[in-house]
């Protein structure tokens, strides 16, 4: 009887210990919460988010806010349950944020590249909306990974113009000219940055796909060139979801008058060069972030409307459904002149 009692006590203690330990073990979930908002018409750390050179810009007021989501990884069971009970937050499987087999560094690089691409597409969409035609195309640096041969020599948004004195106007030409040297040999890269022509010497390395081919270790894209220069400066934000609000800000700065009418307008959505707006993740947290910032209107990609409407109404901003940049501009214009105007809604 005594032995049985001792066994029961020991078993109970071990079970309790395992339970307590289990509560603090990591679980494969991530918390999504409302992140900070950024005014595309404003400045970050004293630097304007959008600057335009080569064409007249116009003063404006109000705010066009891009919204973000903050992620909290490495949850334990206790914190996951705590966040799950918070209606302002969402607990989702880690695989939705970071696909299995990918590292945090890979995800970060992909998100950075997606943000850069969204800036290019927003510029193209905004200028197309304003009937400003491209004058050509240029090879532009998308990202320079740490440890690459070009690190500390080239930077994001540099326009590459020559390799060893030979002009390049396409990614294929760039690849061909660099490939003319043996891996380990140096190449001279000419580029355009911040209105100045520069050059640098880079020691190549072998390509992971072909040890006999030299590379400089950057990603590039072929960007349209225009009779004006649009620069977007925003760090610490990744992914493509700010595209719509970038485009709205560019259009506002390049057209007379105040697009917002002094209002705080927030929104989200990817955008392509034709101005088509696509869905994003974390819509509910972005609506909540907009509400906290005082926004009265929130531009919602049409495909996100059902989830956006699930947010407790309270003082939530008016949800305006958009399929294209033209839709967004038309609705904002209508609401600027008449707050009671009928516009597409979620």
Automatic annotation (TrEMBL):
Q: Which domain of life is it from?
A: Bacteria
Catalyses which reaction?
A: Hydrolysis of proteins in presence of ATP
Which EC class heads this enzyme's classification?
Answer: hydrolase
Alphabetically list the UniProt keywords: Hydrolase, Protease, Serine protease
Q: What EC number is given for this enzyme?
A: 3.4.21.53
Has keyword Protease?
yes
* Record has 4Fe-4S as a keyword: no
Q: Where is the Lon proteolytic domain?
A: 157-335
- One Pfam family assigned to this protein is PDZ_2
Report the active site residues.
241, 286
> Which family does the record claim for this protein?
Belongs to the peptidase S16 family.
PANTHER family, per the entry: ATP DEPENDENT LON PROTEASE FAMILY MEMBER (PTHR10046)
**Protein name per Swiss-Prot or TrEMBL:** endopeptidase La
Q: Which organism is it from?
A: Frankia umida
Taxonomic lineage from the root: Bacteria, Bacillati, Actinomycetota, Actinomycetes, Frankiales
């Amino acid at each position: 009887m005594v032995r049985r009692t001792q066994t029961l006590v020991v078993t109970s203690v071990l079970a309790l210990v395992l339970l307590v330990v289990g509560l603090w073990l990591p679980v494969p979930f991530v918390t999504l919460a409302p992140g900070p908002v950024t005014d595309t018409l404003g400045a970050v750390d004293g630097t304007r988010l959008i600057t335009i050179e080569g064409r007249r810009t116009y003063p404006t007021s109000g705010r066009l806010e891009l919204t973000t989501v903050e992620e909290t990884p490495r949850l334990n069971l206790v914190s996951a349950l705590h966040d799950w009970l918070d209606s302002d937050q969402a607990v989702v499987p880690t695989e939705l944020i970071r696909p299995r087999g990918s590292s945090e560094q890979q995800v970060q690089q992909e998100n950075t590249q997606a943000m850069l691409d969204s800036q290019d597409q927003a510029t193209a969409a905004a200028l197309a909306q304003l009937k400003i035609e491209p004058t050509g195309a240029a090879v532009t640096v998308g990202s320079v990974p740490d440890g690459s041969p070009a690190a500390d020599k080239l930077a994001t948004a540099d326009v590459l113009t020559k390799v060893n004195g030979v002009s390049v106007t396409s990614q294929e030409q760039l690849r061909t000219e660099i490939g003319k040297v043996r891996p380990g040999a140096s190449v001279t890269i000419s580029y355009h940055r911040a209105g100045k022509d520069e050059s640098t010497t880079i020691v190549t390395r072998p390509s992971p796909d072909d040890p006999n081919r030299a590379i400089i270790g950057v990603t590039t894209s072929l960007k349209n060139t225009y009779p004006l220069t649009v620069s977007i400066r925003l760090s610490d934000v990744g992914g493509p979801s700010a595209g719509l609000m970038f485009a709205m800000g560019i259009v506002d700065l390049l057209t007379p008058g105040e697009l917002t009418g002094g209002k705080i307008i927030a929104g989200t959505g990817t955008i392509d060069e034709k101005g088509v707006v696509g869905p994003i993740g974390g819509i509910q947290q972005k609506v909540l972030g907009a509400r906290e910032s005082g926004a009265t209107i929130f531009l919602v990609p049409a495909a996100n409307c059902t989830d956006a409407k699930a947010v407790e109404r309270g003082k939530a901003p008016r949800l305006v459904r958009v399929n294209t940049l033209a839709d967004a501009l038309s609705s904002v214009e209508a609401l600027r002149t008449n707050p009671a105007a009928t516009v597409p809604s979620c």
